[in-house]
Design a protein that fits this description.
The chain is α/β, with parallel strands linked by helices. The chain has 14 helices and 13 strands. The strands form 2 sheets. The chain has an 11-stranded parallel beta sheet with strand order 1-2-3-4-5-6-7-8-9-10-11. It has a two-stranded antiparallel sheet with strand order 12-13. The protein is globular.
Length: about 425
């Protein structure tokens, strides 16, 4: 067994050499890493230096702190993951990270979500990935890199052939860079999952959705696509469905928080009758109503044998539509996860889902409602289960082991490395 260097001692020496005061939070994490590494032997580890840890004293990581940390980890082969979410890193810190990514050959996972990295920082990190051949998963979530910053990542996707997962959600990107990213993904064969949530779009023409649809016609490697808060309407859904009729790779489609109505869901229903690849469909926070729910239930009951998870949370569906979905589950044996909270429950709905749970057709951990009885009437209570509860946060103590709150993790196997930070659907090799 190889003997790994003492990370804490290297950090102390680096602080002295660079004239930088020690960050006690970083020092504590590195001490614990030494212990973990001795337990795990030669196994790679992830350093979790998240600034939103409320269980221990935290001194958030600054640009100068990152400069020291990067010098310590530059040649450390057993650190394969670095979680620096919710700190105070700026473009200056991104410069240190860019240099580190060009020199390090072992880091596979990097989480920079919710720092203060802007356009120039995005350029430095994206340019570093032109040469980096090891990073598999990058989270830039919540850094306001803007449209120009997003363009640098679009350019990177034309060159990098290693990155498999990229999260650019909540980054204030615009029409130009979304179009460029969709164009780059037409040729990119390595990216398996991409998050483009909540761009800043000022047009009602849905040009970006049209470009994403064109990409899906040609891309045969993308497994997961997040298009939450894209101002998408029925026209955009129709374009996506047309493209997905010929797509045999996409397994997870997130269309939550858009403006999809029953007319848009009619296209999705027709798609589900023909598409046998899609496994997870998230329609949360749209307005599909009863008619939309019935379109879905008809497709699921009669034709579809691939969809495993469906979320229709907060869609203004009443008893008629919800009962239709519960009836579809009686004939469709593949659909195992369904989320319905935030709709209009009547007694028929409560009875229908109570029956599904009591008969074992719907497992209690595979839905977000739980039946209970009061005054002789069945009611439904909310459970904290869903497709992506831990998108923005993970428990500070220990690993996330409860897949009930992140159904996308339970639907397929994932490499042990990526299960540490559950965001995207789990990818099979």
């Amino acid at each position: 067994m190889s003997v790994h260097p003492d990370l804490h001692q290297r950090y102390v020496r680096a602080c002295q050499n660079l004239g930088q005061p020690e960050n006690p939070f970083i020092a504590d994490v590195l001490r614990e890493a030494n212990k973990n590494d001795k337990i795990r032997g030669t196994k790679g580890i992830t350093l979790k230096i998240a600034g939103n840890n409320h269980l221990v004293p935290v001194q958030r990581v600054t640009d100068d702190d990152l400069r020291v940390l990067a010098s310590v980890l530059r040649d450390t082969v057993f650190v394969t993951g670095l979680d620096l979410r919710c700190n105070v890193l700026t473009d200056a810190g991104a410069k240190h990270m860019g240099t580190f990514l060009q020199e390090n050959s072992t880091l596979q996972y990097l989480n920079l979500m919710f720092n203060d990295i802007g356009t120039s920082g995005a350029e430095l990190i994206a340019r570093a990935l032109h040469r980096n051949e090891t990073l598999l998963y990058l989270r830039m979530t919540g850094n306001k890199i803007g449209d120009k910053g997003g363009m640098f990542f679009a350019s990177m996707l034309q060159i990098n052939s290693t990155l498999e997962k990229l999260d650019l959600g909540d980054c204030d990107m615009g029409t130009q860079c979304l179009t460029a990213i969709a164009t780059a993904l037409t040729q990119n064969k390595s990216v398996k999952a991409i998050n483009l949530n909540r761009p800043l779009l000022y047009s009602q023409e849905e040009e970006t959705t049209v470009h994403v649809a064109l990409m899906l016609r040609n891309n045969s490697s993308l497994v997961e696509l997040h298009l939450c808060k894209h101002e998408m309407k029925n026209f955009g859904v129709e374009r996506l469905c047309e493209a997905l009729n010929g797509n045999s790779s996409l397994r997870y489609l997130d269309l939550s928080c858009n403006k999809i109505t029953r007319d848009g869901v009619k296209f999705l229903g027709e798609l589900l009758k023909r598409n046998q690849t899609l496994e997870i469909l998230d329609l949360s926070a749209n307005r599909i109503e009863d008619d939309g729910a019935i379109y879905l239930s008809e497709a699921l009951a009669l034709c579809n044998s691939s969809l495993q998870a469906l979320s229709v949370v907060s869609n203004n569906i009443s008893g008629k539509g919800l009962v239709a979905l519960s009836d579809a589950m009686k004939t469709n044996v593949e659909l195992s996860y369904i989320y319905i909270w935030g709709n209009k429950f009547d007694e028929a709905t409560c009875m229908a889902f109570s029956e599904l749970i009591q008969t074992g057709r719907l497992k209690p951990n595979c839905t977000d409602v739980e039946p209970y009885e009061v005054d002789g009437h069945v009611r439904l209570a909310e459970l904290s289960h869903g497709l992506k509860k831990h998108y923005y946060w993970t428990p500070s103590c220990g690993e996330v082991t409860n897949n009930d709150a992140n159904a996308s993790l339970a639907i397929a196997a994932v490499s042990e490395y990526f299960v540490k930070i559950p965001i995207f659907v789990v990818l099979q090799s």
